[in-house]
Amino acid sequence: MNDRDLVAIRQAGLIDQKQHDAIAAFLLQQHAAAPAPRFDLTHLLWYAGALIVIAAMGIFTNEAFNRMGGLALMLCGAAYAFAFAIAGHVLWNRPGLRTPGGLLIAVAVAMVPLIVYGLQDWLQLWDYAQGNPGDYNDFYPYVNGSWLYMELATVLVGIVAVARYRFPFILMMAAVALWFMSMDLALWFTRSPLAYGEFDTRRAVSMWFGLALMLAAWIADLRRKDGPGMTFWIHIAAAAAFWGGLSLHDGGTQLDKFLYCLVNVALLAYSLFIDRRIYAVFGALGVAGYLGYLASDVFQDTIVFSFALSAIGMAVIAVGLFTHKNRPRLKAWFDSALPSGLRSLRPRPVP
User: What contacts 24+ positions apart, CB below 8 Å, involve 40-44?
Assistant: First the structure.
């Protein structure tokens, strides 16, 4: 039973408000007393090992690795992907080993950019992209429009993999590819593949791409049935792309900066509405940045502002303590205060 079910029972007249509060407090106590998810040294080693392999075959590839040539890189990536996929499938179907199995499937998905890069380099397909982007290890630190095919393939393979193996970490690969795509896609809208100076275009593409990804993740949450949420990493990529593009706006009037603050406040409200804390993190960073701007530029010669800002900070902490203590009641009130149309647009809480 979740908070929405409890509110529905109360609205149906089966219990009164006092009984509702008592049941909500009991469920909260039961949840607090439940054992925490197990994440011990073994799990840490599993995740660390998977990340080391992903980094070794991506971020830390060296010049000698790149000299292998496109065909060799493609075959190397395909061999790794096949071996890790088979091992992951075997472990996934063994009791108690779904975590290492899912991690190995994620490693297999992480090989997709290497395979696609090798294919493009071997067949010299760069003319159908945005030119030769350089070595494979440049995929991670540098923006280039030619990476787009690698990112699209990674996203598609990640979606197929997670549809078969319901392990959220697999989508981290797709989320990283989507984040990179938000930057690389911008170069397809500029005049040349190396038009890094057209910053406003890249920023706008990142912002709108992130907004579209936020909407897609929201819809996916609405369509989710019972079971674990699979869009955690997609929400992170969406928030990073949208907030990054929004926050990198240079200059602007006082009104523009105030509107930026309001958008970040809206992110806080959106976080509460869909129950995803990542948007609250970015929203709080944006509001804090705006207040810092006021302190350093607008009110730099006003001594009262420092005290007022400190009082605001203390008030925010107090509100946080109050919401932590009264979370069940506040969530119940929020659900009951929402119109039925908006209530139906809230995703089910992630277990």
Answer: 43/99
Would you say 190 and 198 are in contact if contact means Cβ atoms under 8 Å apart?
A: yes
Residue 318 burial (C-beta neighbours within 10 Å; 0-12, 13-18, 19+): exposed
Q: How far apart are CA 165 and CA 112, in angstroms?
A: 17
Q: Would you state the pLDDT for residue 78? A: 94
- Positions of the chain with pLDDT lower than 50, given as ranges: 33-37
Q: What HEC string does 94-151 produce?
A: CCCCHHHHHHHHHHHHHCHHHHHHHHHHHCCCHHHCCCCCCCHHHHCCCCCHHHHHHH
- Please answer whether residues 227 and 348 qualify as being in contact, where contact means their C-beta atoms are separated by less than 8 angstroms: no
Measured between alpha carbons, how far is residue 207 from residues 52, 233, 245, 266 in Å? 31, 17, 4, 15
Q: How far apart are CA 56 and CA 65, in angstroms?
A: 11
Structural contact between residues 89 and 105, judged by C-beta atoms closer than 8 angstroms: yes
Q: Please compute, for residue 163, the number of CA atoms within 13 A of its CA located in the half-sphere on the CB side.
A: 7
CA distances from 230 to 157, 199, 233, 251, 301 (A): 15, 33, 8, 38, 49
In degrees, rounded to 5, the angle at the alpha carbon of residue 112 between the alpha carbons of residues 183 and 131 is 50
Amino acid in position 279:
Y
Cα–Cα distance measured from residue 165 to residue 185, given in angstroms and rounded to the nearest whole number: 29
Q: Which of 207, 284, 278 is nearest to 292 (CA)?
A: 284
Report the phi/psi class of residue 202: left, alpha or beta, with left for phi > 0 and alpha for psi in -120 to 50.
alpha
Instruction: Retrieve residue 148's tokens.
Output: 């787009």
The DSSP call for residue 325 is H
